Structures are given as C-alpha cells and as structure tokens.
Amino acid sequence: MTVGESSSLEDGPANDPSVSKNSHQDKPHAVRGDSPSPSALDSASQHSRQPRAIEFVDSHTAGEPTRVVIEGGPDLGTGSLAERRELFQARFDHFRSAIVNEPRGSDVLVGALLCEPTDVASTAGVIFFNNVGVLNGCGHGTIGLVVTLFHLGRIGHGTHRIETPVGTVSATLIGENQVAIENVPSYRQAKDVRLTIDGLGEVVGDVAWGGNWFFLTKSISIPLEMSSIDALTDAAWRIRKAVNAQGFPDVDHVELFGAPSDPKADSKSFVLCPGKAYDRSPCGTGTSAKLACLAADGDLEEGDAWVQESIVGTSFVGRFRWQDAEKQIIVPTVTGRAWVTAEGRLLLDESDPFAWGIRTA
Ligand code: PYC
Known about the structure:
Helix content is 19%, strand content 34%. The protein is an alpha+beta fold.
C-alpha cells in the first residue's frame, strides 16, 4: 500500500484510513534482512476475525516510558520525517491512540513509531507521539529507542543518526544502557516573560526551543517533591494556558525549576507534557532548552556539565557547544540511561469498543 491508498480491510474506526496489519514498508535499515519470519502475524491477517498485531518494545529512560512500535505501523511513504508525521497526524490518529492510550497504555506513555530513514547514512527515523497527539522531538524517547535497537540486536555501540521530524539527532550508545544524544540546535526565544496567573501571582520565565517548545521558570514556590505532584501539575497547566494566551501558542511543555535534592545535581525540575502528564525523566528536549538559557545567560560554559535532576530523582547530564555564539544557538548533548521493560504484541480487535484506545483528547 502506498501513501494515500487504503483498502477497506485497512480501514480504522468510522471509515478512517488505518494501519496496515503488518506493514514492512517503513522498516529502518537496521532491520533489513532481519524481519521476523512470515509468522502468525501474516496468517492472522488473512483471517478477518483475527486482531491486528502490533509488535512493540517498551523501555523507560530515567523513569519515563517509551513504547517503540517495531512492526505493524501505518505505511507513511518515503517523504521526510516531518512529512510523514503530518500524514500520521492527519490520517492515523486512531492508531496513535490505540498504542499509547488506555487500555493498552497510559497518559504518561510516549510512543515512538520506528520508520525507514530518508538518508542511507541514518540508522532509523522516528515519529514520537503521546496521549494527545504527535510530538516534535523527544530526548528520553531517543535514548529509549537506541537502547531498544541495541536490545533487538539491530545496532551496536557507537554513534547512530536518528531522523526526527525536527532534525537529525546523533545518538551515541556508550554502554548497554547509556546513550548520549547530540540534539537539534536549541535556543532561547524570549527572556523574562511575565505572566500574571490567578492563584500563582506573577510568574517570570523564558521561552526556549530544545526540540519542543518550553516555558522555563524558577518562580514557583511549591516544593519539587512527589507529594506535590497535583499542585505542581495544576500550577504548570495554568502557566501553560497563560503563556499560550500571551503570544506563545506553540509552547506545550512547562518546566518548573528549583534546588536539587541530589547533592551531585545542579538543579531539579518538574516538567509538564502536552497531555498533562508529568515527565518522570528530566526531559531531554527540556534539558536542551535549559542549556540554551544557561548558555545565553553565561551561566554555563561550553563543554561544562550540567546535571539536571528529575522530579522522581533521576538525572541527565547536559553539555553544549556553540553552533552560533553570536545568535546564541547551541548544540546540546544530553546523556541518560534507559532499560527495556517489555516486548510483545498489542492486539487490536475490531469488535473491541476500545480497539483504538480511550481518548483524552
Ligand atoms: O525527553 O524530550 C523528552 C520528552 C518530551 C516529552 C516527554 N519527554
């Protein structure tokens, strides 16, 4: 099946075009010649009562989960990853929901659709998504993807180019579980944005790009502790709405910073994601945005380490080099660790009222 085509057998709910039952057309180079044997998946797809099967591997990076879709995803053609993400968003949103939402997933789960890269020099392409839609980039997810590909025996140690909708990320697998990602160029867009928010008063922070759009603030006095998750979520959500209304509609992540609990860390953060789930990790794109602000303020020197602690007590180590010191654009490197937690098949049965997930948006 090529882009734009769908057969009635492939249709999802309410006549939406849907996933191919076992598309092998969007497989990364690392997988070539390495596909599972014709298997039950293929024979299952010939039997109309058989559920669609999606092969996945789950991992967590510093506590934040990633579900990599290995097989059974939609055919998105061979365009750029940005073009394929657009197609995915427009036509396969039910597939997104089926993978990450309940009853197969949860609000916190980030999905990663493994794709064929456009460039032979790249190892893989990936489209990230969550409970409410597609993401731009995802640092923890890229670390999880690399550890997953290593777990599957598809890559070895060393540096791998991973194509994303917002640029190519260079990921170096250092040990079995440790990955350093050289992320997309990052920068601060606005400094000291002042928001007045009911119940919070004045909140001052920066807007920065680190592969996603962030509002970063130190203004919140709520303790950065697990026991304050509800209050932190409520505050961050209000901040997001205010910053969106005040000229920054693309900001969909909010980072609240405070003093670290871990003496080895430089800072601790609470990160609220677009679908109102909090990031269990320090957030790879969020750490990139933080590094961009630190660099712009002269608070961190090129090459020096910044240890960012998450709300659950895990950490990423960030460093940067200047891409353009005059324009204050940096290239951040974020190092973190991931572990594979599960591998298996998701089954989507058309007769199941929740075959396409329980939607929160
Ligand atoms: O690590 O970049 C990240 C991320 C984005 C959303 C959740 N995690």
